[in-house]
């Protein structure tokens, strides 16, 4: 998750230089004994320089646009990013990989791998702090949940994990009761007797292998039961997970949901952990 207070649209202003122009400039400076491994190590070192700029900083220091940074700090970061881009292009050239083409292919692949883009309605009822919540303004691509502490951001993420992942598998009675809404006002005597989370997916392009234009995934719990549904039909947990995987929700890749703090954790991770994350996402 990311919190943003800067609503100004940012874009790259320069349209006079391409990746190919940069490649020709970078590769024009031939270095003796250069090889692919050395180019990778140069890239790794320059990315480490970027990481060092954020080490020890808080979320408040790192708001979008970096308003808390001095001009000198911003310039130092700019130089580190510039060096990393040059090294990335040099590595791509040494590997004879067309970076522009690779980016386009990866973006197209991501549309298939992260089908959360296809979701357009989320209904949360009786779950955690939500007696009822309808989210119907999701956009294709990245969706960011913003709110103050205690406003329920984490419970929305928990609701998505509740349906789309195995994080809440094999719940006991007490675990189910803890997930059911306890947010009752003083004059309400009735307790929540059930909770459910329902996600609607656009399936016009048959992203899921089912002959329906709308796919509705639902999980419902009571004190004594835990049920799963696909378009209103009762399904077993394993059947639902297999159906989700058929649409791109891999059990081995949970990065279609990015929790608060994960970005900073990755930025300060050691190289082995970063490689493990990249392998999981690829």
TrEMBL record:
InterPro entries: P-loop_NTPase, RecF/RecN/SMC_N. It holds the Pfam family SMC_N. Gene3D superfamilies: MazG-like, P-loop containing nucleotide triphosphate hydrolases. It comes from the Eukaryota. Residues 121-251 form the RecF/RecN/SMC N-terminal domain. This is RecF/RecN/SMC N-terminal domain-containing protein. It comes from Euroglyphus maynei (Mayne's house dust mite). The lineage of its organism: Eukaryota, Metazoa, Ecdysozoa, Arthropoda, Chelicerata.
